[in-house]
From TrEMBL:
The keyword Signal does not apply. It comes from Gelidibacter gilvus. CDD domains: PNP-EcPNPII_like. It comes from the Bacteria. The purine nucleoside phosphorylases catalyze the phosphorolytic breakdown of the N-glycosidic bond in the beta-(deoxy)ribonucleoside molecules, with the formation of the corresponding free purine bases and pentose-1-phosphate. This is Purine nucleoside phosphorylase.
Length: 270
């Protein structure tokens, strides 16, 4: 993997991706943050050596380098999922690249369904812990010990200081920001009523199909990391209706301005 990483790093450095401080992963329907960025360079994923290519129609597929709130950042406009046929190593490859380029902090966003019925669609949830239901680990490959500690500690995967700042920002700006546990499943099918009941029993407050692999690798690389979910639907197994993906995207876009405030104000404070 180091050979591939070095090839990718060399390409991006030649493109001007130099000394970033912060990495940002934008999830489903969450692309408006780019409007707050002074873009210096951008490259389509399919032009970057050894990079996966986003295949989901509502993921843009660009790596952007620019200035946001005075900080140099690399932003993934579109992410990868194992339901696209990628391995967990593919999904998390960009995190390794961002770390090698120099980031110290990774901020992640996603769209998810609310398992906790006290949470409503259109609100935000700060992830304080997670449950990996994707069936494997992005660290389960030969040679991982050359990239970081094989037995990575996950007792506190989300940075407490950053989470405290997110909560303070939300309070200042009157933004509803729940705290909870995010469960990551494979997908791409949505859950059955029985699966939603199971997720509630095991302690999940929200469910989605991403984020956890990136968080694991960020911890493997000893990055500071935090993640915010935009809750796009309410997963009540006693009152379950068919889900329209276009409605999920629309709800993510509606809630995104609050997430942008959180991210911009946080970055300003880092």
């Amino acid at each position: 993997m180091m050979k591939y990483i070095n090839e990718t790093i060399e390409y991006l450095q030649k493109k001007g991706f130099e000394n970033p401080e912060i990495g940002i992963i934008l999830g489903t329907g969450l692309g408006q943050l780019i409007d707050a960025v002074e873009i210096l360079h951008e490259v389509s994923y399919n032009h970057i050596p050894n990079f996966p290519t986003a295949t989901v129609e509502f993921h843009k597929g660009k790596l952007i380098y620019g200035i946001i709130e005075g900080k140099k950042a690399i932003i993934m406009q579109g992410r990868f999922h194992i339901y696209e046929g990628y391995s967990l190593q593919d999904v998390t490859y960009p995190v390794r690249i961002m770390e090698k380029l120099g980031i110290h902090t990774l901020l992640v966003s996603n769209a998810s369904g609310a398992i906790n019925l006290n949470f409503k669609k259109g609100e935000l949830m700060l992830i304080e812990d997670h449950i990996n239901l994707q069936g494997s680990s992005p660290l389960a490959f030969k040679g991982v010990e050359h990239l970081g500690e094989r037995f990575t500690d996950m007792s506190a995967p989300y940075d407490a200081e950053i989470n405290d700042k997110f909560e303070q920002i939300a309070k200042t700006h009157n933004i509803t920001l729940h705290k909870g546990v995010y469960a990551s499943v494979v997908g791409p099918q949505l859950e059955t009523r029985a699966e939603y009941r199971m997720l509630k029993i095991i302690g999940a407050d929200a469910v989605g199909m991403s984020t956890v692999p990136e968080i694991i690798v960020a911890n493997h690389l000893k990055l500071k990391v935090a993640a915010v979910s935009v809750l796009t639907d309410e997963c009540d197994p006693s009152n379950l209706k068919p889900v329209d993906i276009s409605e999920i995207i629309a709800m993510a876009e509606k809630a995104e301005p609050d997430m942008i405030v959180l991210f911009k104000e946080l970055i300003k404070s880092l």
